[in-house]
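Lab meeting, action items carried over

1. Structure of the two-component assembly. Owner: GW. Status: complete.
Input record:
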Amino acid sequence: MSYPSNVKVVKVPCTGRVDVLLILRAFESGVDGVYLAGCLEGECHFLRGNLRARRRVEYVKSVLEEVGLGGGRVEMFNMSAAQGQRFAEVAREMTERVRALGSSPVKKNVKRES
Amino acid sequence: MIVGNRKEFREILEMLGSRRRVLVLGCNECVTVCGVGGEREVGVLASELRLYWKKEGQDFEVREHTVERQCDYEYIDQIRGFVGDYDAVLSMACGAGVQYVAETYKTKPVLPAVNTTFLGVTLEQGVWSERCQGCGSCILDMTAGICPIARCAKSLMNGPCGGSSGGKCEVGNDVDCAWQLIVDRLSESGQLDRYEEILPVKDWRSGRDGGPRKRVREDLKL
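Predicted assembly:
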């Protein structure tokens, strides 16, 4: 299994752990895109973690639209731990999407923060 | 609790104008519970501002701070040491909090990031509903614990009106007719005879029509 090397994996115990602020902080640090790879819907070990994550992703999309970065830079995907090929496929899909959107306009100015 | 809605980001940017050193000030009370102006929402708004200004390549300084209450001087006073470092305070409290901060720091622009909306309850996680308009003379004893002032679109003292249909109000199919609710509950609790009583015209002097209100308890004064 191979997937684009630009994808950096951040491990969390469940996508339900991923807070809106975690995603926003990532964008503040200059990343071009963020996606969550959660378990299949209906198969969350914590029952609703992945469903909550999806709603949070939708919220972040609206925030990114508001600030002019575009909601397409963040996405939620579902796959099981056994779907390595799917993981690689999603990594390629998201990489292509973000590449088409271009580099984050925030990135070039990251050092300007006081 | 007091419930509000976050203003649109565009509107907040317009309020800020050319100000780039901003203190985003949250409140730990009602607006935290209704998910509009607590520490987390302060974090989101501050992040939005940083992302936007970074994108625009502008210099800025955004500080996040949340006090216990913006409606009590003791807590507002806690920002005295650094409020002067900022061009504006973006308050995420209700209108009372915004005004009290502005009253305390008279020369500092204090801008509202929230539209204060109503006094209400939590129906479920993430859903709030209006229950009280603070009219100053409660009649819930007469109306089976359901307020027609806050929950009837016309604030009728004796209802329902002709706009009630199938238990819903004519203003929207998702709005319960308050007077239908009152009649149903009076009936369920064996008090339907109370519905025969005609409630008198409301004296609105105890509400906003009597001007801004003030409450004093001499025994609590220092």
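2. GW to write a short summary for the group page. Key points so far: The interface with chain B takes residues 20-21, 24-25, 27-28, 63-64, 66-69, 105-106, 108-110, 112-114 of chain A (CB under 8 Å). The first helix of chain A runs from residue 20 to 28.
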